[in-house]
Amino acid sequence: MEFFIQQVINGLTLGGLYALIALGYTMVYGIIQLINFAHGEFFAAGGYMGVILLSFLAAHGYMETHPWFCLFGALLLTMGYCAMLAMAVEKVAYKPLRYASRLSVLLSALGMSIFLQNGLMLTQGVYDKAYPTEFTHGGLDFGLITFSYMQILIVAVTIALLLGLNALVFRTRIGTAMRATAQDKVMSSLVGINSNRIISTTFAIGAALAAAAGIMIGLYYGSVRYDMGFVPGIKAFAAAVLGGIGNITGAMVGGLIIGMVEIFAAGYLSSEYKDVWAFIILIAVLYFMPTGIMGENVDDTRV
Amino acid sequence: MTGTATPILELRDVVTCYGRIQALKGVSLSVMPGEIVTIIGANGAGKSTTLMTICGITPPQSGAVFYQGQRISGLSPDLLPSRGLCQVPEGRRIFPRLTVRENLEMGAFFRRDKDGVQRDLEHVFSLFPVLRERRRQRGGTLSGGEQQMLAIGRALMGRPRMLLLDEPSLGLAPLIVRHIFSIIERINKQEGVTILLVEQNANLALQLASRAYVMETGRVTMEDDARALLANEAIKKAYLGE
């Protein structure tokens, strides 16, 4: 029973991170019908920006004196950096292809992904980079179950980001304009919405969420690698498809399901095959339920 | 029509293409401030393309569009509503998954005067009380007539000086059409909004408008006072079904 509860907590942590990444896929798809294959690289860039900032802070002793303050500062800076990176990527690789066929844009996305990943390898090296995690060790101990502080932080930040995103998309003027643009680009420009600006904003928000996931994964596992964006990227993509691509709530639910399945399969079946489950789910969803859990009929929360 | 005043909208020899097909083959027309002008013609004559070209969605290949004396062809379409040029497009194009209220708010997207927007929202609700009842409902769930009212209301939220209306009667019951046309007349008479109306229902359009253009296969083939066209034998035969 303790093992089970511990796995639920682990699943929530991982699932929340997948959900954060999946949102970027689903929001971009909702607005320009593009699977942004470079999205995983924003997550990796976030992981690296996080380790660079935190190592710098640790080297100057700030991590020792104000660990949580440093973490939040690094989180915000990383999110801002990746938002700008994504806007630049959109401008260079996708905007010129706005009226091209979908295949061209998809290929451009794949190319961008390879470019960003190799850029990371070239500038940061091929070896793992370790996060300075020694200052944020510890946790709450309930006898047989433990919540590490890091897990609590991850779950709390994830929940805050998901709530914040929901409020942004469904309560604000800019969020309404995002949904309007996703639903009818011609009409949205006829009411005075600049669709290029909305598309750029969507990329920025998606990348900022992925960046937050990147820095938190780095803290959770203790290190990052230049190719870290690939596998979680595909898993998050599976989560977005499972939830119904284009649907924001669907991406959150899909992320949690993929995270849970992965953790439980690793815990009860075999940890060797933990990466397989997301793909099995992806294939099964595409085969039996291509619209996903919240696609088509339950479309209240589509962008 | 006063001869010396400048038109609020003018098209000069506009050519618009879809790929290699010329949809507009040199269209010229003008609308004076305060007028209701209608464009009638059969399916595929280029009426909707004319409106989409004015708004910059399908920019002209050659020729130019002038609004309030300034050239607007070549401008990005999203810059026009803030200048007072709004369109109610063909098929109404309601945002289906936004609520009625959100649809109306999007009509005022470019405006910063919150109080003014709130007042205009009340004004639209007073013109179309059914929209107030349905304000929390999603746009896609409305009936055709309600969607047309919402589309007009959304355009009014931008406080237009000039309104382009594309087939507001399409697919609606006669009673609802009469209601919508009475509102259009009211918007023109009471609020001084200039109106360019595209209609297949020529009879109705000619009764409302002061002047009319007849379009055929991408060209303006006739231009006259609406009353004169109503009495014109050729028009009667071709468009009025008599």
Relevant terms:
heterodimer; A: 303 residues; mainly alpha; two-stranded antiparallel ribbon; two-stranded antiparallel sheet; 12 helices; 4 strands; B: 242 residues; alpha/beta; Rossmann fold; six-stranded mixed beta sheet; four-stranded antiparallel beta sheet; 10 strands; 26% strand
Topology of this structure?
The complex is a heterodimer of chains A (303) and B (242).
Chain A lengths: L1 H31 L6 H21 L2 H4 L1 H28 L7 H23 L4 E2 L8 E4 L2 E4 H23 L1 H11 L1 H6 L4 H27 L1 E2 L5 H14 L4 H22 L6 H13 L15
Antiparallel strand pairs in A: 1-4, 2-3
Chain B lengths: L8 E10 L2 E11 L4 E6 L5 H8 L7 E6 L2 E2 L13 E4 L11 H8 L6 H14 L1 H5 L10 H13 L5 E5 L7 H18 L2 E6 L2 H7 L2 E6 L2 E7 H6 L1 H7 L3
Parallel strand pairs in B: 3-8, 3-9, 6-7, 7-8
Antiparallel strand pairs in B: 1-2, 1-4, 4-5, 9-10
Q: Strand sequence of the main sheet of chain A, in spatial order?
A: 1-4
| CATH structural fold name of chain B | Rossmann fold
User: What's the CATH architecture name of chain B?
Assistant: 3-Layer(aba) Sandwich
Rg of chain B is 17 Å
Strand content of chain A: under 5%
Describe what is shown at a glance.
The complex is a heterodimer of chains A (303) and B (242). With 303 residues, chain A is mainly α.
